[in-house]
Write a structure and sequence with these properties.
Number of strands: 10
Distance between the termini: 26 Å
Strand order of the largest sheet: 1-2-6-10-9-8-7
Enzyme class: transferase
CATH class: Alpha Beta
Structural class: alpha+beta
EC number: 2.3.1.181
Shape: globular
Number of helices: 3
Protein name: Octanoyltransferase
Low-confidence stretches: none
Pathway: Protein modification; protein lipoylation via endogenous pathway; protein N(6)-(lipoyl)lysine from octanoyl-[acyl-carrier-protein]: step 1/2
Keywords: Acyltransferase, Cytoplasm, Transferase
CATH architecture: 2-Layer Sandwich
Length: about 220
């Protein structure tokens, strides 16, 4: 096995969800113990994705205007669209890394911490909510609103795919046509709504680099 290396960042640009989903599975199927981990940065056209146990009843009036894709990640229904950072984490949690081997719960915690850290750089305070993966606004007019979502697939061999989304500057209307992550009436915001003006490309790169940093430490 090769010595630990940091994940490679790959910029996929704008790409449809179906082909990216297929590519993630193909990459993971073909992995060997020496395959370098990768972070895929992508921006999707409008799409709803369903987790393995998702209830289609959470798709509300208006949702029929947007394609729906069944996935193999955890979680309920979520929305991806332009103006949103999506990063897929194609990782092997069982290999030795600078911060040590990871368990799934630690992995989720580190991903959430990276999002919190990037929001803080824009003077936004995000927080975790017990039992509800993702990041929520910790104060202000939109306290409790969801700004980032998280959904992963961890195979039995410790290899992961799927990942996270962080809302930067979006048309938020499609979130009102679902119960986001299964929660009726949950407000969803983006960074622009809560007062942070940011370029999507800047946040994409910052979050990818922060993920690598946090994953490589014991914090």
């Amino acid at each position: 096995m090769t010595s630990p290396t940091f994940p490679e960042i790959k910029h996929l640009g704008k790409a449809d969800y179906d082909s990216t989903f297929a590519a993630m599975r193909a990459f993971t199927d073909a992995r060997t113990p020496d395959t370098r981990d990768q972070l895929w940065i992508v921006e999707h056209p409008p799409v709803y994705t369903l987790g393995l146990g998702a209830d289609r009843g959470h798709l509300l009036a208006g949702a029929s205007e947007i394609p729906v894709v069944q996935t193999d990640r955890g979680g309920e229904v979520t929305y991806h669209g332009p103006g949103q950072v999506v990063i897929y984490l194609l990782m092997d949690l069982r290999r030795n890394k600078p911060g040590g081997k990871l368990y799934a719960r630690q992995f989720v915690h580190k991903i959430e911490q990276a999002i919190i850290n990037v929001l803080q750089a824009y003077n936004l305070v995000g927080e975790r909510v017990e039992g509800a993966p993702g990041i929520y606004m910790a104060g202000g007019d939109h306290q409790g609103a969801k700004i980032a979502a998280l959904g992963l697939k961890v195979r039995g061999n410790g290899c992961t795919y799927h990942g996270l989304s962080l809302n930067v500057a979006m048309d938020l209307a499609p979130f009102s046509w679902i119960n986001p992550c299964g929660y009726a009436g949950l407000e969803t915001v983006d960074m622009r709504t809560v007062g942070a003006q940011a370029m999507l490309s800047d946040v994409q790169q910052q979050l990818a680099e922060e993920l690598i940093r946090v994953l490589a430490t014991n914090e």
